[in-house]
């Protein structure tokens, strides 16, 4: 790994990359099987846990239907279903729902 890191500048931000081989629920696992608690969220995502069966199933179903469409040009009916659910939870005077990936888009 070190040779490849030096040759290809892989993971340049770390001198020695921290290797992970798999993930399940709230843990990553190193190649030797040592668990590492994943207490972070990634860029543009939350952390509901890794490889959770209901989430994997939902992703597989959605990917089989429509895997991506740019939201500034198109919409999927589930966007409106989710917006309706969010609006129902919000105070009555909030009548707009805006989905974004980081919050900076709302400024």
List the keywords.
single chain, 31% helix, alpha+beta, 3 helices, 107 residues
Task: Give the topology.
Layout: H1 2-8, E1 22-24, E2 27-29, E3 35-37, H2 53-65, H3 77-89
Antiparallel strand pairs: 1-2, 2-3
Describe this structure in words.
Helix content is 31%, strand content 8%. It is an alpha+beta fold and 107 residues long. The mean pLDDT is 80.
Give the C-alpha Rg.
19 Å
User: What summary fits the major beta sheet?
Assistant: 3 strands, antiparallel
Structural class: alpha+beta
Order of helices and strands: HEEEHH
Q: Based on Cα principal axes, name the global outline.
A: elongated
- Taking the alpha carbons of the first and last residues, their distance comes to 42 Å
Give the spatial strand order of the biggest sheet.
1-2-3
Strand content: 5-15%
In short:
The protein has 107 residues and is α+β, with helices and mostly antiparallel strands. It is built from 3 helices and 3 strands.
């Amino acid at each position: 790994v070190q040779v490849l890191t030096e040759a290809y500048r892989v993971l340049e931000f770390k001198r020695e990359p921290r290797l992970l081989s798999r993930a399940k629920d709230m843990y990553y696992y190193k190649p030797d099987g040592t668990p590492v608690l994943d207490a972070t969220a990634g860029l543009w995502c939350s952390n509901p846990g890794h490889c959770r069966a209901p989430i994997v199933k939902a992703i597989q179903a959605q990917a089989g239907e429509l895997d991506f469409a740019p939201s500034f040009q198109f919409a999927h009916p589930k966007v409106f279903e989710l917006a309706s659910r969010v609006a129902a939870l919000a105070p009555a005077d909030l009548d707009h729902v805006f989905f974004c990936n980081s919050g900076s888009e709302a400024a």
